[in-house]
Design brief:
alpha/beta, 11 helices, globular
Length: 323
């Protein structure tokens, strides 16, 4: 008896619920939709631009849209998040700050192809054109410095979009050792990068971040676990294929002609304890090849000095931009 009554009651409850939903759905469906504007809410900006070859590039765009834009280009294998300390600093100074995730990195499309400086620069141009950026200052770190050099030479300067540019611990003109670049890094080093990435990308990224990138392997270094974890997080967000192919892009792309073609004012900065990109084969050569450059070498600073020494670097970048 109890079992039969319970079943009957459940049936009644289910039936009642079904009827209630049936009555409610037409009323809900017929309700007039109210747009965000009608509610007095600003809709979120869609933070992607689609390139000519169909790749979705994620970007951030903060600050007044009528202010001078500063565009940030991140290093390998990171994302636009690596510029947090600079974007917050410059937006607080009234600038418009823009940064994007390179193809295959961060939140951008994990495509199979196009992981080279030509596509990197074309993607950066797609962002600049989409946002109608002019009188912009472009700042590139490491591989992002190569992206800036190729973008400014091929797109930004010819289109009249660039006011100044800054290279920070950047890879140009050429990292790998060749007959024409005898002081470069042997190809075996980059082969080692590829092998380590293919074998265990997660551990390789942890080793880089906790070791040479920020100089945390130096005696007396003030190690930040948060910085290490953030580097690892950014790297693991991206595509292993993009990271693997990107090693060739940042190490074997000769950008001598890019640097020679640039005429806008350029600031070249690097630490003399950079264990990733040797400064004598990078910043010092960049300054010689550029037509209008200012060179600043920081004693004892690591490759990731934008993070470890933001309190020193940010004011210096601001001073150059304002000069």
């Amino acid at each position: 008896m109890t079992s039969e009554f319970s079943l009957s009651r459940r049936q009644v409850l289910l039936t009642g619920t079904t009827i209630s939903l049936a009555l409610a759905i037409p009323a809900f469906a017929s309700e007039k939709k109210i747009s965000p504007h009608q509610r007095g809410i600003e809709p979120m900006t869609h933070s992607y631009v689609t390139t000519k070859d169909g790749v979705e590039i994620f970007y951030k765009d903060w600050g007044p849209k009528d202010a001078q834009p500063i565009v940030f280009h991140h290093g390998w294998p990171l994302s636009s998040d690596d510029w947090d300390a600079q974007m917050l600093f410059f937006v607080s100074k009234g600038y418009r700050v823009v940064a994007h995730d390179r193809r295959g990195h961060g939140r951008s499309s994990q495509v199979s192809d196009g992981h080279d400086m030509d596509h990197y620069a074309a993607d950066a141009s797609a962002v600049a054109e989409h946002l109608s950026l002019r009188n912009a200052v472009h700042i590139g770190h490491s591989t992002g410095g190569g992206e800036v050099a190729r973008y400014v030479a091929k797109y930004g300067q010819p289109q009249g979009r660039v006011a100044k540019a800054i290279l920070v611990s950047a890879v140009p003109p050429l990292m790998v050792k060749t007959a024409a670049n005898p002081d470069g890094t042997p190809i075996e080093v980059f082969d080692g990068f590829r092998n380590a990435l293919a074998a265990n990308r997660a551990q390789f990224f942890l080793d880089v971040a906790s070791g040479p990138f920020y100089g945390f392997n130096r005696e007396g270094a003030k190690v930040s676990q948060g910085v290490i974890d953030n580097w690892w997080r950014q790297g693991m967000m991206g595509s292993a294929k993009a990271h693997y192919d990107g090693i060739k892009a940042f190490s074997e792309t000769d950008q001598t002609e890019d640097l020679k073609a640039i005429t806008v004012p350029m600031l070249v900065t690097q630490g003399d304890d950079d264990q990733i990109v040797p400064y004598k084969d990078a910043a010092e050569l960049q300054a010689k090849l550029l037509k209008n450059s200012t060179l600043k070498i920081y004693k004892g600073f690591p490759h990731g000095m934008l993070t470890t020494h933001a309190d020193v670097i940010n004011p210096d970048l601001l001073a150059f931009i304002n000069a």
